[in-house]
Amino acid sequence: MPTHTDPFNMPFAGFETFLEALGSPRLGSGGAPLDVYRRGEDVWIHVDLPGVAADSIDIDVERNVLTVTAERKWMPVEDDQVYRSERKQGTFRRQLQLGQGLDTEAIEADYHDGVLTLRVPVAERAKPRKITVNTSTVPTVSEPTPEAATAEEAVAVE
Predict the structure, then answer these.
(1) At 98, phi and psi to the nearest 5?
(2) What CATH number does the domain located at 30-125 have?
């Protein structure tokens, strides 16, 4: 039996597999959908975890990798007649690579109405800052002094 390939879909062939490799969930996968954005001095992460008990949520940061793990359980009790069970059960896990410019020591987490919200502040060292230019009263010397030679050796310019 011949198979039909839609030529308009060809550019997107394998795209779902590509997204899964990046950690983006597709509809029906085991990943929890999330949004990540920066607002002012903070990066905000919202993870949808409907039906998950707050005490089953585990958040870890190791080497700037944020890992959110949660578990949703539902077991029918004796005498239940289950006609359909479509809601995903089990463990959900998402990982995000956080940039060096974020303060992973100051992450805050809140869970409300099935949405886990994480606030990750931008580190002080990564915030834009103004650098003041000072004027020097030392005259320019044509020959480097021993102190100047040492300073030149301390800075490598390529």
Answers:
(1) -90, 145
(2) 2.60.40.790
